[in-house]
Amino acid sequence: MTQQALTQQSYEKILFCYGDLYPEKTTGYDLVVLEPIHFSAQDVTVFKNNNKKVLAYISLGEVNEAARHYEALKGFTLGKNDIWNSHVLDIANQETRAALHTLIAAHIEGKGFDGIFIDNIDNYTQWGPTPKKLAALVEFLSEVKLRFRESVILQNAGLLIMQDTAPYIDAVAVESVATDYNFSTNHYRLRAKKDFKSRLDNVLTVKKQYQKPILLIEYANSKKLTKEVTKRLAGCKLPFVVAQIDLQTVPKSYE
Fold first, then answer.
1. Per-10-residue mean pLDDT for the chain, 255 residues long?
2. How far apart are CA 221 and CA 217, in angstroms?
3. What is the pTM of this model?
């Protein structure tokens, strides 16, 4: 599926899951985003046969200590994110870029994923730890898109730098527009109505400006909150998924 063929309707039923799943039991999704470490090329083939698009998760902003490529990159990192036990990547560093290119090729060419879901793009905005590395990120994305022209690149967040990344991505995911998870207290909650409206208006403005499909990832841990989120987003005409914050299991709202 090329960028021109992608529409908002391409992503009506969505699954983000970074835990281990039974490929044959995961069916009927328009988009599935997986942590590729759990799956073989044969598994990915099963996922692709049962779903429309299957993407591999990769962070372009940080590397977790549990990741296979951490040992290769730990000497080139720029700081630590204690919330996720991960380290900030220096994407301008040639060793880092080479490792990421190898990883992406392993996902797409090696295992057969339809593309990649690129996380931690907010790191390159003015509010992130590496805004001065934005030019290096854009250069890296251009290299990836040139090599994998037919692959889907789904960007997570980073709306503030869409003018730079838009030429090289196919769609955008935005987290926590309707919800507001508190990492300090591990508390799930709805955003204040004014805050929600402001965030939603911004998302819709970006969607109109850059003509990219946008989907939402919301977080809830109860049927009650999930229903409230669903009601809140019912009229926005954006596809969304409601899941627990660690994204380790199939969301209860879709079981």
1. 51 91 96 97 98 97 88 88 86 95 97 98 95 98 97 97 98 97 94 97 97 96 94 92 93 58
2. 13
3. 0.92
DSSP bridge pairs for 187: 182
Residue 53 structure tokens: 């698009």
Integer Cα distance of 188 and 179 in angstroms: 7
Q: What distances in angstroms separate CA 22 from CA 38, 39, 47, 111, 237, one per listed residue?
A: 10, 10, 9, 16, 31
Tell me whether strands 86-88 and 62-64 are parallel, antiparallel or unpaired.
Answer: antiparallel
Cα–Cα distance between 159 and 174 in angstroms, integer?
8
Report the distance separating Cα 51 and Cα 152, nearest Å: 15
* Size of the chain in residues: 255
- Residue-wise pLDDT for 44-81, tens only, equals 999 999 999 999 999 999 998 888 888 888 888 998 88
pLDDT for position 210 = 97
| Contact present, 12 and 28 (Cβ < 8 Å) | no
DSSP state of 101: H
CA angle 208, 212, 218 (to 5 degrees): 95
